[in-house]
Amino acid sequence: MNALQGYGLLRVIARVFKFLAWVILVLGIVGLIVALVSLGGTGDPLLRVIWTVGVILLPVMAISWFVQFYAIGSVLSLLLDIEENTRVLAVRTVEQ
């Protein structure tokens, strides 16, 4: 069985996870910049505290999600590579 035929969708899913990881990281950075810029315009002290907490949590969450999504994509790629290498080795062993 060819890995591209049997596990093509899984390879796509791994790439999608890695792509989403980068999108989340970029959106987190953009959100941080927007939050910092809009923080100066708030006059209400309670709203300023809420924005400050958001400014602190946004990059932490973005980095955390980036690491998780990228790790999932990398583990899927690793498992597919292990399967492919195992299959190639099994074919070589049978041929000898």
Any overview of this molecule?
It is a single chain. The protein has 96 residues and is mainly α. It has one domain (3-95). Helix content is 91%, strand content 0%. The chain has helices at 3-6, 8-39, 45-95. Helix 2 (8-39) packs antiparallel against helix 3 (45-95). The two termini are 19 Å apart.
Question: How does the SSE layout of this entry go?
Answer:
Elements: H1 3-6, H2 8-39, H3 45-95
Helix pairs in contact: 2-3
User: What's the shape?
Assistant: rod-shaped
Helix residue percentage: over 70%
- Total beta strand runs: 0
Cα separation of the termini: 19 Å
Name the average pLDDT: 87
Entry summary:
This protein is mostly helical and about 100 residues long. Helix content is about 90%, strand content about 0%.
Keywords:
mainly alpha; 96 residues; rod-shaped
